[in-house]
Design goal:
Shape of chain A: elongated
Number of strands of chain B: 12
Strand content of chain A: under 5%
CATH topology of chain B: Rossmann fold
Structural class of chain A: mainly alpha
Structural class of chain B: alpha/beta
Order of helices and strands of chain B: EEEHEEHEHHHEHEHEEHHEEH
CATH architecture of chain A: Orthogonal Bundle
Largest sheet of chain A: none
Largest sheet of chain B: 8 strands, mixed
Number of helices of chain A: 12
Strand content of chain B: 15-25%
Oligomer: heterodimer
Number of strands of chain A: 0
Radius of gyration of chain A: 22 Å
Largest interface: A-B, 20 and 36 residues
Strand order of the largest sheet of chain B: 6-7-8-3-9-10-12-11
CATH topology of chain A: MetI-like fold
Amino acid sequence: MTGWRNWGLWLGALIVGTTLLVGMFAPLLAPHDAFAFNLSNRLVPPFWMEGSKPEHFLGTDQLGRDYLSRLIYGARISMLIGVTTVITSAIIGVTLGVIGGFFGGRIDDVVLFAITARLSIPLILVALAVVSLVGSSLTVVVMTLGLLLWERFAVVARVTTMQVRTLDYVAAAWSAGCSRSHILFREVLPNILSPLAVVATLEMALAILLEAALSFLGLGVPPPLPSWGLMIAEGKEYMFFSPWVIMVPGLSLFVLVFGINLLGDGLRDLLRTGRTA
Amino acid sequence: MTAPLIEVRNLTRHFRVRAGMFSDARPVIAVDGVSFAVPAGDVLGVVGESGCGKSTLARIILGLLEPTSGDVLIDGKSLAGLDRRERARLIQPVFQDPYSSLNPRRRVRDVVGMPLMAQDGMSAAAARKRVDEMLARVGLDPVMAERLPAELSGGQRQRVAIARALVLHPRIVVCDEPTSALDVSVQAQILNLLSELRRSFGLTYLFISHNLAVVEHVASEVAVMYLGRIVEQSATQTLFHAPRHPYTKALLASVLTPEPGLGIPETGLGDAMPDPANIPPGCRFHPRCPVAIDRCSREAPTPMHDRRGLVECHLEGAAS
């Protein structure tokens, strides 16, 4: 255990944990209705600027909606997208990767072909095409990203399975007459989880950024849902006179993704030192 | 001589190895027509340098690899038709490296109990009792049962691996270099444990090693492998005191001595490494053989059986 010296892990966990909690309890935490607009109260600056109002801590946007409340609801969307995308893509990628790595031969050729095919698909372009065809909704964004972001899971799961499969404890399980499913689920799978946990953090950061990018392009989460990417998009016209409308969600996005990456790095170090075998 | 418990008949295994995307697959002959028989209660030591096919032989006998041809028989019955679980009740392995032979995510109790769980038809309570007994037999404290492999020393891990191999009360244990990864001080303990368990459980061992001193200590009979074939086989005493095949002689001469002044022993084998993908014509040992004659490079010797055992060499055939 590296303990408290592994500060990155703890800082990352703190950032991600806080965002997760804020997202979960958004209705309780938001000081105002995030959807109620008040045109007489537009573009109120945040607390550090002149002309701020105490009831709007981070000011208001171009429609007079409380920015702090929208930021809190935006955290909910980001975390929702991050978590569900990772779950969907992990299920697809790990299943494919483990099957390919475990059975090898022709089956592995098929898996490898699927990974190569997926890698040659330009991600943003396909996401854009799907969203513009089907129409934008939260479900569509989650499904599109989930169905596109599995390849890193598949690559890592496949290679680690191939490594574990040749180890003597798997040979011992075969010699003991264990069933194939026992070997797959009890001997192989538990031993490839740590690298996959690291992949999960990377994918989560990527999914959150992609959602922001799609929303910024107007093809992600539809308004008036408060996504951080959408907030940046909506604020871009006011950027020169009211820069905080971009700064606040942009910084939040940066801090969250930074935190997730810290968590992933820390996790990797922790699992590496923790595994002596 | 009693009827053999385990008999191997003409076992051969080829691998197809592709050197690159566009080159043809070349066959690698890892095991080439190996036959032997081991009576119940005996220990057959198999020695040879790395790449001679001894581990492939072990994996075929364990059922981890299919033989290209040939058969493994136990009590006269072929293993080929057996269900994996039936085979597991007859043969169990002990592997070389106790750091990779135990699942790092499972507790010692689960590792040792795994073969029992695979057999099903045993209640959890009975299995638990059997595991506890087995741990006591291999000299592990009962508190170890709840530990993870990472919390154990190399010797303790190998004891766990032995307990796992014996928990089903198999008849044959294939020991693939069981002490090579251990400290010298621990090696003797594990060897003594294996000998003691063999006597009390009435086991038959196939003991694979490159360590001649270890084999001399445990084996009742020794087979020397070179490039996939057994070139000499006889009772341990005979083989160590009167080796007949030039390769066996060289192996025995290569054993390091504790005297530092003597340096690395000269084997007369040269620097060429044997390559199972490129087996020489004639006698496969002739390019390295210090006493090779003209005939050796043209004609492969046939195994010669006599009262002292088996040897596969033109010179020995002519001499006797």
